[in-house]
TrEMBL record:
The UniProt record lists the keyword Phosphoprotein: no
Positions of disulphide bridges: 71-152, 76-135, 84-98, 102-111, 112-122
Name used for this protein in its record: Thaumatin-like protein
SUPFAM superfamilies in alphabetical order: Osmotin, thaumatin-like protein
Pfam families for this protein: Thaumatin (PF00314)
Length: 172
């Protein structure tokens, strides 16, 4: 059975990438919690790469599980809107969403662009560290690969759960 995206269109299989790139899709408006997949199409022993990214901000809690529980789960199960720094908040009073520092300030050091467009030059910021502390298995900035990219051989299927109840032990 083919995988489908949230609007029912089939996902195309493609080889995994060295770094999962932040791609904008039609209709995606930050801030947005994003599940990202790079599905193996016969290369690299059928290994699928997946992650949950807060690089474009946070708007809802999410868990991604692969291989019917055989593979590591990842996600962000806390309400980051409650912990969102004031300069990143969207909404009056209680935040409705939390922007990334890149979206809020549009500066290369926050966006990992220009002279900061490499893992050596782009480092975590105080803002991305707020995201990482709350959601340690999710991407908090563009080059947060080492603790945020997950792999699964022959996963077969992935389950994405939006706004899950409670925090599962395996995500703590």
């Amino acid at each position: 059975m083919p995988l489908h995206n949230m609007v029912g269109h089939p996902l195309k299989r493609r080889p995994p990438l060295a770094f999962l790139r932040r791609l904008r899709t039609p209709g995606q408006t930050p801030p947005a919690t994003i599940a990202e997949f790079s599905l193996a199409g016969g290369e690299r022993n059928n290994i699928d790469f997946y992650d949950v990214s807060l690089v474009d901000g946070f708007n809802l809690a999410m868990i991604v599980e692969g291989g019917k529980g055989r593979c590591a789960a990842t996600g962000c199960v806390v309400d980051l809107n409650q912990r969102c720094p004031a300069k990143l908040r969207i909404g009056e009073g209680e935040a409705a969403a939390c922007r990334s520092a890149c979206e809020a300030f549009r500066r290369p050091e926050y966006c990992c662009s220009g002279e900061f467009a490499s893992p050596a030059a782009c480092k975590p910021t105080a803002y991305s560290e707020v995201f990482k502390a709350a959601c340690p298995k999710s991407y908090s900035y563009a080059f947060d690969d080492s603790t945020s990219t997950f792999t699964c051989a022959d996963a077969g299927e992935f389950t994405v759960t939006f706004c899950p109840e409670g925090t599962p032990r395996y995500l703590k």
